[in-house]
Amino acid sequence: MSIPPFVASDPQSVWDYCEEMICLQGASFNRPLVAGMSFAFYPPSRSSDGMQCVRSDALRRVRPVPHLPFGETCEYVLSRPLQVGNDYHSQIWVATPRDGQALADADPALVLKFIVPSALRHPNEHPGMAVFDIKNGQYRYPADLVQCQVAAYLALEEFQGSTMAYFFGLHQATMPWGEEASVLALEYLPGPTFRAAKAALRSNPLTLKYRNFESYLALAESAITTVKTAHNRHIYHCDLREENILVDEDNDLAVIIDWHNNPRTIDDHELIAYGDLYDTGCTFVRCDMHREQLKKSLWTAHLDVFSTVYPDEVEDGWVEEDSES
Ligand SMILES: Nc1ncnc2c1ncn2[C@@H]1O[C@H](COP(=O)(O)OP(=O)(O)OP(=O)(O)O)[C@@H](O)[C@H]1O
Ligand SMILES: [Mg+2]
């Protein structure tokens, strides 16, 4: 639990915090992050990289660990925005080493995810409600939101390099407008988002790969395995959708990003897990080309996912009827 930035039971303190956030937001419009800015950070040494999949339910780690100067301070320069603007909670940038500290033969790009408190939801809608909102998990302090995301990367560490991006630590940075932000340093994944991959299936005849059902199924299977393992470890994604899945086309893996992992405390975790499975199932089933085949595969191998997406058809025995016809 972080040190709260305001006293939730004191409306004046909540009010002052919101005023400060609004001021910082205004300042951020005038001096946003731009390409060429540099950030120093310290990628912690990685102890488990020599161990391949110590846990039996892990997917095999397939992407090599990017070459970073682990255990040393290094400086990275923002080179290309992936997501910027005031409509977003996070600013996402590709960054490259300032002076070639990373080995030249490896792709040295990183993703820096800047989580800026003033861009997050403020507790100001009903200042009198702050205590209640915090108690039931409706509102989380910025530092706690960040810790929820970090917890997912740590709990699923052996999936990094397969269905999770490599995570190179949580860092702090001062934004150009003077605000302190949290920064997640992550592996850069060049692959398309699952949304783009699905769109290409419909429109781009050159993108044949996922017209093959087995390849498409491999993506779905990798996502389902990851989400179910996460639930076994009390980690919940809470925002599973096409934009939060990147496709590692070389390995037919769905790389799940943007782990919110912030279910409200008042919610039954079984219900949250059900929601994640429903969202995962729908994300893959909503594809004209593969819907029917995937439905059958889910029925056979992942009845729990099938039953969230097609609850009525479970009762009706959909596949049995279908296979008889
Ligand atoms: N590791 C990565 N490699 C490549 N692209 C990435 C990576 N992380 C994020 N992106 C790109 O940036 C977009 C936004 O990232 P992300 O989903 O983490 O942010 P967000 O949705 O704004 O997060 P939040 O909901 O926490 O504010 C993704 O859809 C993806 O296109
Ligand atoms: Mg996202």
From TrEMBL:
Keyword tags: Kinase, Transferase
UniProt keyword annotation of Cell inner membrane present: no
GO molecular function: protein kinase activity
Superkingdom of this protein's organism: Eukaryota
InterPro entries: Kinase-like_dom_sf, Tyr_kinase_AS
Name of protein: Serine/threonine kinase, SPS1
